[in-house]
Specification:
The chain is mainly α and about 220 residues long. The protein contains 10 helices and no strands. The mean pLDDT is about 90.
Length: about 220
Amino acid sequence: MQWDNIPWPLIGQAARETLVMLGASLAFSVPIGLVVGVLVFLTSPGNFWQQNWVYRGLSLVVNVLRSVPFVILLIYVMPLTRMLVGTSIGVSGAIPPLVIAAAPFFARMTEISLREVDRGVLEAAEAMGTPRLVIIWRVLLREARAGLIAGVTLTAINLVSYTAMAGVIGGGGLGDLAIRYGYQRFRPDVMFVTVVLLIVLVQLLQSGGDRLVRHLSRKTHNEK
């Protein structure tokens, strides 16, 4: 390995690009996934806004998008990406497919978190005459916040791997650097450094998310 010739400026730039892709795609994926996940939960059988056709339609869309391998999704949505941001390569070109891939995942995580909320709490709030929108915001989402944060953490970790795969189409970031310099130019040292940086990023996300989940879980328990 050529340890003396590692292109640290390029690695620093690639790391910044990865963080930009992660932050931007997470900023779009979480709100979209949250809204879709709440709608899937509320329109499911036995809930406030039960609508079987809406529930089945949303579930189908979520399942289909989650089933498509990300590399294939990257290529398939290129026309949409160019229409939205004017390019299908680079950091900007990677963000739309990242959002399309991550939002359905977080939507399903949101639905799972909401299903774990005690039904008795919701029924008690409804029996007190609390408006349903208030129940959704003040009770349902509040009770599910620890699970939602865990879902955000898992979504962020998935996005890290997606940003690395975006390098296949020149998406920028550490994945692109690993492919162009580490693989195509036979630089195992560059490949090693990029892998280590990705592992460190995932560990930081996981430990930070776990710490926040524990804090919210204790807070929710104390409030009860």
